[in-house]
Amino acid sequence: MADQDLKKDAVVWKGPESLKQAISLLEEFKLPGGLLPLEEVIEVGYVKATGYMWITTAKKIEHNFAKIKKLVSYSTSIHGFLSDKKIAKLQGVKAKELLIWAPVGQIMADADDAVKSVHFKSFAGITKTFPTEAFALGE
């Protein structure tokens, strides 16, 4: 499916308001607000009918989640499909594993609200689990 087809009927935010909207979307789908610690966000888009979302930034960033000692790289173009407690078919996010950058294909929060974990699944099928508080805003 072409990019324009995926973005049909999207709500789009641009400028300073767009980062707040990205955080709001994550929280609406019960994902931690600090999951995508982005800077210089140019555009955020969301298609309610399909869950398709995208984020465009001015530059690629690397962020170290100190509580879990994990380095994550965010491309200038991030996109995937949001649903309850999940981002599927994620593109533009990589996590450092030993000496290589592994693409993250899916992020899921626990279905049970009592258990506070976030699961990252690579395209190779490897899943890593971390405590939700590691992805709080400002971490």
Count of discrete alpha- or pi-helical segments spanning 4 or more residues:
2
What class, by secondary structure content?
mainly beta
Whole-number count of domains:
1
CATH class assignment: Mainly Beta
Q: List SSEs in N-to-C order.
A: HEHEEEEEEEE
Structure description:
The chain has 139 residues and is mainly β. It has a single domain, classed as at5g01610, DUF538 DOMAIN, CATH 2.30.240. The protein contains 2 helices and 9 strands, in the order αβαββββββββ. It has helices at residues 3-6, 17-28, and strands at residues 11-14, 41-46, 52-57, 61-65, 70-83, 86-97, 100-109, 117-122, 127-131. Strands 1, 2, 3, 4, 5, 6, 7, 8 and 9 form a 9-stranded antiparallel beta sheet that branches. β6 and β7 (100-109) form a beta hairpin. The chain is globular. It starts with a helix and ends in an 8-residue tail after the last strand. The relative contact order is 0.17. The mean pLDDT is 88.
